[in-house]
Amino acid sequence: MNRPLTRVFLACVALLVGCTRDSGFNPEKLAVGPGSMVGNGEPITSGEFAGGQDPLPAARDVPPPDDSRPPDCDGACVAYCDAANLRNPVNRGLCRSLWGVGLSHRPVQHAEACRRLFVDVAGRVPTAEEAEATCTGNWGETVKQLMASSDFIFVNQRRAADKYLYSNEVVNIQAIYDMDLLVEKLFRGKVPYDQFAAVVSAHPVLTRRHADPGDKVEALFRLFLGRPPFEHERADMSRLYRLWHSGYYDHPQMAMRMPDAYVRFRCLTEDGSEVDQVKKGECTSVLWGYNELVLTPDLRSVMDRQINELTLWNGLLTPDEWALMQTPGRVLSTELAFWERAVDDVLDQYLGYDLSAKVPEVRAELVRWLLDHQGDLRSVHYAVLTSAAYLQSTEGNTTTSYRWAYGPLKQMEAEVWIDSMMRNTGYTMSTCDHRISQPENLLRSGSVAAYRVLQNSRWKIDAEGQIEEDYADLARTLGGCPENIVGGRFRVVSILTTGTQLAFVGDLCNPTLDPKANGAPIERLLPEGVEAARVLTPELATQIGSHQYRVLLGRSPTSEELTDVREAGAKCAVDRCGAEEFARPLCFALLSGAERLFY
């Protein structure tokens, strides 16, 4: 007699709790969703990871293998690597394909390593002063320092936006902010990777982004296993996604109809009061054990007249219901391939090539390392960033085709390239926000709340109340700031992108000294105390060159480079040119080179 009343009472309480989601709307804290429910305690590990300063062994004194076959590590090779006592898992995995078979690695110069680390972890090219102040002493401590910065979090949040294709035209903007917060928690070590995947598997960023159950399953497999599902896997897991429905939510404060995910009630009896014992197989996965996923409606549910079914908005789900909806991610994380994909993604991020396919021992060591650290993904980032595979140079003649015997060489992302240009020269532009790929949608709503969301975002609004898009227009031509409606980010070297880059560097450096141009402040291109009109001498040219190499390229010039600068200055001095007349063309020459595009 009392059970129906109890169920109604609990439903009313849940409804009231759910409604507070909108009554507490805050443009400065927009994140609402399942990501806000996890990772709210202390980090799962201390963040003190071993293996940051491995003494690397020399190549074993044996003839190195030829390039026609994979290296073969015999018993003596295995014994050699075991005796090396390497603590870094990447180094342990590499040894039997590198030092143990007589191959040498190519040690990196400190300045090259520091520049690479800043681009990868902080998302910008450092000045020489910044590099010298940060990359000192123990390399492992330097990596920890940069990984603890907000820049590291932001770089990985932007990568996640590319991976999950954030688009406020397809997904509720509050869900996107919630996903962004979840990624932050992952890289602060507050959420283990398997829990992260579980939350993502039922997150509106995935369930609203992709259409039918099969599409959701395919997206989940590609994201966390790196492959599409086999047909029997798709058919089985699709049963766990049958409850999701793509609909729209009328946001009361922002005066916008937002795309959002809803739950449909399937596999129930005709009156919807309980599970139908005949139909429940349609909502049950059996491939990874028995996993039944059925919810029953209550007062929170409303009739969707378009599909003629009761639905429940995801914003009203309780934590227990969210946990049930996250079953697909939890069952996937029981697969070894799930953890292998996690470490493969990190290796590709920092090395730019598939080391796991070439040296599978590295993947195996990293998987053990990640599990030993309770799924704290930071441990894998730290291991790769302090490994011999990462700390190798790209310079010099390549004497082997074994890819792991020399360092990574990658192309900078558009935002990294632009941000570094602006930061190093003092040139000013607007920016873009990876969480809001279509800011114009918010402007069109005309609501004060939507405008305040934009004001608190990384987008800039001009005096006329319009979005400043100079940065976005440039970045999108180069493949950055993607709108993520159909496609995402791209990286390419072409006539169009090269022409765009040269035009931007021309605007920034203003080598023609156009008085109408709004280039970088000349004070940033000249040594301190040197005035723009000062008459150039070979000695002054050398000072300007040394200053610009350190500021613009993040390193001191070589003796050969200084000789070239001095000779160019001597030629310019013949025509009695001034310091600015020399500094701006030199800026263009340095910033238009490949060193500012590849690292």
How would you explain this protein's 3D organization?
This protein is mainly α and 599 residues long. It has 4 domains: 3-24 and 193-201 and 211-326, no CATH class; 31-191 and 335-410, no CATH class; 414-477, no CATH class; 513-596. It has 27 helices and 6 strands. It has helices at residues 3-23, 75-83, 89-95, 110-122, 128-134, 139-147, 150-164, 173-187, 193-201, 204-207, 213-224, 231-238, 319-325, 327-332, 336-351, 355-358, 360-372, 378-385, 414-425, 439-445, 448-455, 470-477, 495-509, 522-525, 538-552, 559-574, 579-591, and strands at 244-251, 256-264, 284-285, 291-292, 302-304, 309-313. A 4-stranded antiparallel beta sheet has the order 1-2-6-5, with no helix packed on it. Strand 1 and strand 2 (256-264) form a beta hairpin. Helix 7 crosses helix 8 (173-187) and helix 15 crosses helix 18. The longest helix has 21 residues, at 3-23. It is flat and about 95 Å long. The termini are far apart. Residues 1-23 have low confidence and may be disordered.
Poorly predicted ranges = 1-23
Strand order of the largest sheet: 1-2-6-5
How many structural domains does the protein architecture include? Answer: 4
Distance between the termini: 72 Å
Give the number of DSSP strands. 6
* Shape summary: flat
- The mean pLDDT is 93
